[in-house]
Amino acid sequence: QVQLVESGGGLVQAGGSLRLSCAASGLTFSNYAMGWFRQAPGKEREFVAGINWIGNTYYTDSVKGRFTISRDNAKNAVYLQMNTLKPEDTAVYYCAADRARGGIATRLTEYDYWGQGTQVTVSS
Protein backbone atom coordinates (compact mmCIF):
# COMPACT_ATOMS: atom_id res chain seq x y z
CA GLN A 1 0.00 0.00 0.00
CA VAL A 2 1.03 3.58 -0.53
CA GLN A 3 2.67 5.29 2.42
CA LEU A 4 3.83 8.86 2.80
CA VAL A 5 5.75 9.56 5.99
CA GLU A 6 6.70 13.11 6.96
CA SER A 7 9.51 14.00 9.32
CA GLY A 8 11.55 17.02 10.35
CA GLY A 9 8.97 19.07 12.17
CA GLY A 10 9.60 20.67 15.53
CA LEU A 11 9.76 23.86 17.55
CA VAL A 12 11.81 26.74 16.20
CA GLN A 13 12.11 30.44 16.95
CA ALA A 14 10.91 33.03 14.49
CA GLY A 15 13.55 33.61 11.83
CA GLY A 16 14.81 30.05 12.08
CA SER A 17 14.77 27.20 9.60
CA LEU A 18 13.47 23.67 9.33
CA ARG A 19 13.68 21.05 6.61
CA LEU A 20 10.75 18.70 6.23
CA SER A 21 11.10 15.36 4.50
CA CYS A 22 8.50 13.03 3.08
CA ALA A 23 9.42 9.43 2.32
CA ALA A 24 7.17 7.66 -0.16
CA SER A 25 6.67 3.94 -0.66
CA GLY A 26 4.28 1.68 -2.50
CA LEU A 27 4.09 3.85 -5.60
CA THR A 28 6.21 4.70 -8.61
CA PHE A 29 7.36 7.97 -7.16
CA SER A 30 8.60 9.56 -10.37
CA ASN A 31 5.09 9.20 -11.83
CA TYR A 32 3.61 11.54 -9.24
CA ALA A 33 3.54 15.23 -8.63
CA MET A 34 4.03 16.03 -4.95
CA GLY A 35 2.68 18.74 -2.75
CA TRP A 36 3.02 20.16 0.72
CA PHE A 37 -0.02 21.43 2.57
CA ARG A 38 -0.50 22.79 6.07
CA GLN A 39 -3.32 23.12 8.55
CA ALA A 40 -3.28 25.54 11.43
CA PRO A 41 -5.61 25.13 14.42
CA GLY A 42 -9.13 26.14 13.53
CA LYS A 43 -8.27 26.66 9.87
CA GLU A 44 -8.71 24.72 6.68
CA ARG A 45 -5.86 22.77 5.16
CA GLU A 46 -4.10 24.93 2.59
CA PHE A 47 -1.66 24.44 -0.24
CA VAL A 48 1.94 25.48 0.45
CA ALA A 49 4.12 24.22 -2.40
CA GLY A 50 4.10 21.69 -5.20
CA ILE A 51 6.54 20.05 -7.57
CA ASN A 52 5.85 18.02 -10.67
CA TRP A 53 7.72 14.98 -11.89
CA ILE A 54 10.40 16.95 -13.72
CA GLY A 55 10.96 19.47 -10.97
CA ASN A 56 8.81 22.43 -11.88
CA THR A 57 7.63 24.15 -8.72
CA TYR A 58 4.84 26.41 -7.52
CA TYR A 59 4.33 28.18 -4.20
CA THR A 60 1.58 29.96 -2.40
CA ASP A 61 2.34 33.67 -2.16
CA SER A 62 2.92 33.72 1.60
CA VAL A 63 5.95 31.40 1.38
CA LYS A 64 7.57 32.56 -1.85
CA GLY A 65 11.20 33.42 -1.29
CA ARG A 66 11.27 31.62 2.06
CA PHE A 67 10.34 27.99 1.30
CA THR A 68 11.85 25.67 -1.28
CA ILE A 69 10.36 22.38 -2.39
CA SER A 70 12.57 19.74 -3.98
CA ARG A 71 12.46 16.05 -4.77
CA ASP A 72 14.86 13.17 -5.16
CA ASN A 73 13.29 10.53 -7.37
CA ALA A 74 16.12 8.08 -6.63
CA LYS A 75 15.28 8.26 -2.92
CA ASN A 76 11.50 8.47 -3.33
CA ALA A 77 11.50 11.61 -1.26
CA VAL A 78 10.25 15.17 -1.35
CA TYR A 79 11.55 17.96 0.84
CA LEU A 80 10.43 21.36 2.04
CA GLN A 81 13.19 23.71 3.15
CA MET A 82 11.63 26.43 5.27
CA ASN A 83 13.66 29.54 6.05
CA THR A 84 12.85 32.78 7.84
CA LEU A 85 9.99 31.08 9.63
CA LYS A 86 7.21 33.17 11.10
CA PRO A 87 4.71 32.39 13.88
CA GLU A 88 1.98 32.28 11.24
CA ASP A 89 3.75 29.29 9.67
CA THR A 90 2.77 27.23 12.71
CA ALA A 91 0.71 24.28 11.51
CA VAL A 92 0.68 20.58 10.85
CA TYR A 93 2.41 20.03 7.52
CA TYR A 94 1.31 17.26 5.19
CA CYS A 95 2.80 15.86 2.04
CA ALA A 96 0.58 14.52 -0.70
CA ALA A 97 0.94 12.68 -3.99
CA ASP A 98 -0.95 13.40 -7.22
CA ARG A 99 -0.87 10.85 -10.03
CA ALA A 100 -1.29 13.68 -12.57
CA ARG A 101 2.47 14.05 -12.61
CA GLY A 102 2.73 16.84 -15.16
CA GLY A 103 0.78 19.46 -13.27
CA ILE A 104 1.02 21.10 -9.89
CA ALA A 105 -2.36 20.88 -8.23
CA THR A 106 -3.30 23.28 -5.46
CA ARG A 107 -6.63 21.79 -4.39
CA LEU A 108 -6.79 19.05 -1.77
CA THR A 109 -9.21 16.98 -3.82
CA GLU A 110 -6.71 16.62 -6.65
CA TYR A 111 -4.30 14.63 -4.54
CA ASP A 112 -4.57 10.87 -4.27
CA TYR A 113 -2.48 10.04 -1.20
CA TRP A 114 -1.65 11.84 2.03
CA GLY A 115 0.79 11.49 4.87
CA GLN A 116 -0.04 11.72 8.55
CA GLY A 117 1.53 15.12 9.02
CA THR A 118 4.31 16.66 11.09
CA GLN A 119 3.91 19.54 13.52
CA VAL A 120 5.80 22.78 12.95
CA THR A 121 5.66 25.35 15.73
CA VAL A 122 7.28 28.76 15.35
CA SER A 123 7.63 30.79 18.52
CA SER A 124 7.78 34.57 18.51
Q: Can you count the helices?
A: 0
The portion of residues forming beta strands comes to over 45%
Q: Note the gap between the termini.
A: 40 Å
Backbone shape: globular
Query: pLDDT below 50 for ≥5 consecutive residues: which ranges?
Result: none
Order of helices and strands: EEEEEEEEEEE
Largest sheet at a glance? Answer: 7 strands, mixed
Task: State the total count of DSSP E strands.
Answer: 11
Average pLDDT, all residues: 97
Helical content band: under 10%
Task: Determine the structural class based on helices, strands and strand pairing.
Answer: mainly beta
Rg over alpha carbons = 13 Å
Description:
- With 124 residues, the protein is mainly beta.
- Helices cover 0% and strands 49% of the residues.
- Strands 2, 4, 5, 6, 9, 10 and 11 form a seven-stranded mixed β-sheet that branches. A four-stranded antiparallel β-sheet has the order 1-3-8-7, with no helix packed on it.
- A hairpin with a 4-residue loop joins strand 7 and strand 8.
